[in-house]
Specification:
With about 100 residues, this protein is an all-alpha fold. The chain contains three helices and no strands. The chain starts with a helix and ends in an 11-residue tail after the last helix.
């Protein structure tokens, strides 16, 4: 009974959580790609371009790390829902 209640709760919160994770993933992926482009081309602002290289390297790596972490959380949520499904249920998880 508790397992069914937990599964129902996961299914109910899945859509808003997945939407939030996808927004976070999109923002951080765009930020990481932008950071890599700025790393090679520069910004055109002397104050930013003179920053130490380690800071310019760590910013896109941090963004990429958050993207990977959000992807992993999204995958784990879907796996928890699929593994907790009642026996012989084939569920389709849109979004």
């Amino acid at each position: 009974m508790l397992r069914a209640a937990f599964w129902n709760a996961l299914v109910l919160v899945r859509a808003p959580v997945q939407l939030g994770l996808k927004v976070v993933m999109l923002i951080h992926l765009i930020g990481a790609l932008g950071g890599v482009v700025v790393l090679f081309t520069g910004t055109g602002l002397p104050a930013l371009d003179s920053a130490p290289l380690i800071f310019r390297l760590l910013a896109p790596l941090y963004m990429l790390g958050v993207y990977v972490l959000a992807s992993w959380a999204s995958l784990r949520l879907d796996r928890a829902i699929q593994q907790g499904a009642p026996d012989k249920w084939h569920i389709f998880l849109p979004l």
